[in-house]
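Aim 2, interim progress. The first record below pairs a target sequence with its C-alpha cells.
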Amino acid sequence: MSDREIISTFKYVLRMKPEFMLSELRSYLKEEASVPHIYKILKPLLFDLGVDAVAEEEDFRLIRAAPQKKMELKDDEIKKNDLFFNSSGVSRKLERLIEQYIEKKTSKNWDDPIVMEKIRNAIRSQKASYWKENKSRNISYEKGYSVLGYLSYQFPVYFVQFQYLLYELAKDGLLKNRMKVLDVGTGPGTVPLAIIDLYNRLDNRKANIHTIELFDENIEAYNFLVPQYAGGKSNVTVEEPIRADVNKLDIEKLPDNIDLMVFSNVLNEMKELSMEQKAELVRNMSGKLSEDGSIILIEPADKVNSTEMRKLTIMLKRMGIKIYSPCTFMWSGECTLDTCWSFEHKRDIKPTRLMEKLAECDEPYRYINTDIKYSYAILRKDKLSKQMFLFPSKAKFARMSQMEMHDKKRINVLCSLMSGDLGDDKYKLYRICDGTSRKAIYAVLPSHNLMEENEAITKAGYGSIIKIFNVLVKYNEVNDSYNLLIGKGTTIESQYDDMED
C-alpha cells in the first residue's frame, strides 16, 4: 500500500469527522496496515493539517484543532509569566533532570567531588576559549564533560533569556495559537526547554518543535532532557533532532511554513563562515518561513559578538529581510554605523543548586553565572516593525547622521534607547540611535541633573522610542563618538506624541 493512499484516506475521514481513532482508518484502506505504520506516515503532516494526536493505549485519538490564529494572552497568563520573570530561574524539575543526566553520564552522584572538579575544568576551558579571537576561538561540545559544563554554567542564563524574547513576541502578537518552531544549533535543547517552560504557563497553546544539531553528545543530552521535560503533554511536541552540519544542510528537506526560526548563540561560533556567508545562510533558510513568520538572532552581549550581529542584520536588511526590533529606522535610508554595540540587560536569575555546588571551592565567582545580557534581532519577511514610525518632512528633530553640524549646540532628537544604563554612580549613560548614525551616540545624564522632567530615559525599555528636547551635543574625540549632555533644562518624553508639536 502506498503512503499516498494512507494520506488520502486520512484526509477523507478528517473531512467527515472532527475526532476519531487512528485505528478507524484501517477499515477504509484496501490493504492491511498497522496503527504504528499509519501513524509513522501521518505524523509529519498532522501539525500542518491542524490535527492533534493524543496517545491512548496502543492507539491515537485524532482531534481536529481550531484554525491557526494570532495568540492573544489572557490576564492569568500574563500574571503567571510576570511572576516568573520577577524571580526567574530554572525550575526544580528541570534542575533535577540535569542532575540525573550528570549521574547517567558519569555513573556517580551528580555532586560527587570528582565530577564537580571535572565540570569546573570544562567550564574554565570553555571560558578561556570564548575570549580568544577569530578562528582561534573554537568552542566545541564533542565531549561529554563539555556538555555538562555548558548545562552547569551557560544553560541557565540562555534558558531564561530566550523566554524573555518569546514572551515579548507573545505580547506583541507575533505568536500564534499553533506554532511550528525550528531551532538551529539546538545544543542540548536550550531553546526547546525554554519553550516548554513558558508554554507550561499558557493555556491550550500548541507548539511543534524541530531542531538541528551536529554533535552526538548534544543530541544525547537533548534526547534525555527535552522529551522528559515535555512530559508527554500534548501542548508541545518535539521532533527528533536533525543531525546535520548547518553549513552543509539540505535546506529543501527542512519543514515548510515555519512560524519561528531561532539562531541562539550559534552564528558567532561558525568561525569558518564569512559575514556574507552567514547572511546568505540565514536568507536561504528564511525561504522555509511562513509569510508572517519571524527569525530570532541571539548573540552574547560582549562588544565583538554584539557588533558582528548588528553588521549581519544590516546585511540581511539589504537582502530584503526586514528588522522588526530592536532597531527603528525613523528616517529614509539605513544605518551605516560599523561599530554598533547594543544589548538588552535583564535582572539576574537565581543560581541553580548545581551552580552553587560548583562554587564550593577557592574561587566561587568562576562558576556562578546569573547575569542576563544579550544582543538580539527579530527579523521578518513582511514590513512589520515593532515601532512603525517615519518622520514628517518638517519634523523639528536633528538626524543623528548630521551630529557634526550640531557640535556644542543644543538640539532636539527623537531616537530609540539601545541599551540599559552603561554608566556609574556619577553619570547615567545610554546608547541611542535613530537608524542613521554614522558614529556612536550616547545620552549622558549626570546624577545631579536627574529631575522629573528628564527621568523618562531611566524608565524606558530597551528599543523604545524617546524624545529628547534641549540637549547639548559634544564630540568625544577619545572615543570618536558624540555625547548628548542632559541638563536640568532638558526634557525627555517616553514613546512619542503627535509629531506636529
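The second target in this work package is listed in the same format:
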Amino acid sequence: MVEPYPILLSVVVPLQNVAGRVRTLVEPLVRELSGQVEDFEIVVVDNGSTDGSAREYAELVGEGGLPNLQIYRLIQAVDQEVAVWAGVENALGDYVLVLDPLNEDLSFLPRALEKIAAGCDLITIRNTTPKPMAGPERLLDRLFRATYRRLVGVDLAVEGASCRLISKRVVSFLLQQPKPALRYRALPALAGFPKASLDYAGPRAAVDRDGLRAKARRGLNLLFAQTILPLRIASALAIAGATLNLIYSGYVILIRLFKADVMPGWTTLSLQQSGMFFLLSLVIFILVEYVAQMLVWTLEGPSYYLAGEHTSAVLTRRSRLNVQAVRKPAAKRAR
C-alpha cells in the first residue's frame, strides 16, 4: 500500500450555478484526496451563483456533511481567475491545487506529487481532451493563442492551463504584488520558480458554460494584464498621425506656392485642419505614454524577487577573523 504524501494540500474548486450537483462534484474529491495526501482541505468558491445553491453549501458543512471543507460565496460574479485567487489567498496548505471538477479530475495527482518531490513550485496541468467548441469559436481561439504567443511570448496551449498546482512560496510571492489576481492570470510566464507541465486525458463538460462574449473579455483582460504593447501600438499610431498631418501641412504650403489656380480659402482651411489634428495626435500620444508608465509602475511591484536563498555551511572568512577566544579563568578552589 502506498503511503499518503506528507503534505497539507489545499484544493481550490470554483463553482457557479451548479444547484443540485454540489455534493456530487465535491464528494469524489474528498474520497480521492483521503488516500493520496496526509492532510487536505477543499476550498469551494461560489462565484456569485444565482440558482439558489446556497442551501446546498450549508448542508455540506453541517452535521453529516463533508470533512475539511471551506466555502466562500462571492456577492457577485467576477472573472474566473479572480474567483480562483479568492480561494488561493485563503488556502492554508503547503501546496494549492486549482481544479475545475466539471472539466478535470484527480487522476493526474500521483504524477503531480512526484514533481513536487522533485522540487517543483509551479506545475501546470493540461487536459488534452478537446473542449467542445463550434468551428468559428475554435478558429478564434487559435487566432488569439497565436497572437498572445507572438506578443507576450507565452504559449497558452501549454502554460495557460487553468488547472495549476502551486507551492506556498509562490502564493507568498503573489501576495507581495499590488494586483495579485492580475499576476496570477499569467503566473506560468514567471521565471525563477522551478516549473513543470503535465498532460493527461480527463473529462470535459458537455456544454461550455462561458459564451463567446465572456471568453473575449477574459482574453482581453489576460492580454492587457500581462503587457502594455496595445498601449505602445496606440502611441505609435498617434505619433504617426501627427507626422502625417505635419507632412500634409507642408504639401498644402507647396501647392499654394507653386500652383496658381488654388481655390480661395483652401490653403487656410487645410492648414487649420492639419494643425488641429497634429496637436490632437500629440495630446493623445502624451496621454497614452503617461497611462502606460502609470500601468508599469502599478503592476511592476518591487524591483526584484528572491526565488530562494542558500548559504554555504563552510565560510572561509570565519577562519581569517583576527579574534581569539577568551578563556574564562578557572574558579578558585575553596580553602
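The first strand starts at residue 5 and ends at 15. This observation will shape the mutagenesis plan for the next reporting period.
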